[in-house]
Specification:
5 helices, mainly alpha, 113 residues, globular
Length: 113
């Protein structure tokens, strides 16, 4: 595996952004600034969940609720931009989270994604 393929807590936002960029296809140019911001927000939420779970500060259920809230917020932003459908917005989020799934789930110790 190339060094650039390795996912860490430091590059979660970049990996999420790259996957979302691909998912948006031709619409990416018109939503780029929103994709960048929402990718980093998802990454921040995932980092917080990883740390809080490791320290025993949140339960599995709370971790899932926190992630779901951020996914809904990102979906709302994407849906509001450029007339994107809710299904397309959710597909972009799902594809973005898929690339970090194994890393996040292994760090947290349970299937969050």
């Amino acid at each position: 595996m190339a060094t650039t393929d390795i996912i860490t807590t430091d590059n979660l936002g970049d990996k999420i952004f790259d996957a979302a960029k691909t998912s948006f296809g031709a619409k990416f140019g018109s939503v780029k600034q929103f994709v960048q911001a929402e990718s980093e927000k998802l990454a921040i939420t995932l980092r917080m969940i990883i740390v809080a779970s490791a320290e025993g500060d949140i339960s599995k259920a709370e971790a899932k609720i926190l992630l779901n809230q951020q996914k809904l917020a990102a979906s709302a932003v994407f849906t509001a931009t450029e007339g994107m459908t809710a299904a397309a917005a959710q597909a972009a989020i799902n594809s973005a989270l898929k690339v970090v799934k194994d890393f996040v789930n292994s760090e947290i110790g349970f299937a969050l994604l």
